[in-house]
Amino acid sequence: xxxxxxxxxxxxxxxxxxxxxxxxxxxxxxxxxxxxxxxxxxxxxxxxxxxxxxxxxxxxxxxxxxxxxxxxxxxxxxxxxxxxxxxxxxxxxxxxxxxxxxxxxxxxxxxxxxxxxxxxxxxxxxxxxxxxxxxxxxxxxxxxxxxxxxxxxxxxxxxxxxxxxxxxxxxxxxxxxxxxxxxxxxxxxxxxxxxxxxxxxxxxx
Length: 205
Hints:
It contains six helices and five strands, in the order αβαββββαααα. It is an alpha+beta fold. The chain has two domains: 2-150, Alpha-D-Glucose-1,6-Bisphosphate, Chain A, domain 4, CATH 3.30.530; 167-204, no CATH class. β3 and β4 form a beta hairpin. α3 (111-129) packs antiparallel against α4 (136-149). The protein is globular and about 60 Å long. The protein starts with a helix and ends with a helix.
């Protein structure tokens, strides 16, 4: 319960940009190679990406898609859920165009995390191009909106993580409210299925 309480305190304190915007599409009066390098080596004061991984089991890393794309990959419990892309193309020898997009690979309730990635990604790229610090207050305000509109998904994520860290014993599923027992049984069944899959994989080796 303490972890759950701390999580919602963090979530409520978070929250730049509208989450439903189409992404950044802007001209920069600098050569594309220079802009690409600055985005890939994003200054710490402009980088707000870490705000999207304040949730159980989430992490991210940055990579390259050839010489024109900087890609931030986000995962939850080792599985990819989305990636944010900044594409830099030349517009003559001394100018470039930067466009951003979000690729949503999520398959369940973690989709709200991708909405947060879009918020922090657009602000981070905008701040980097403008050579300024990220607008943390605006980012926090927008994250708060996303969290408020997805409270059920957030609670589900926390519940799954807490059960992973402290798996229920057999007798635990016989106590508590009806909803708790159903959740407990679903968790135990899912874990049994995963273990069966791992055992089958070991037999095949």
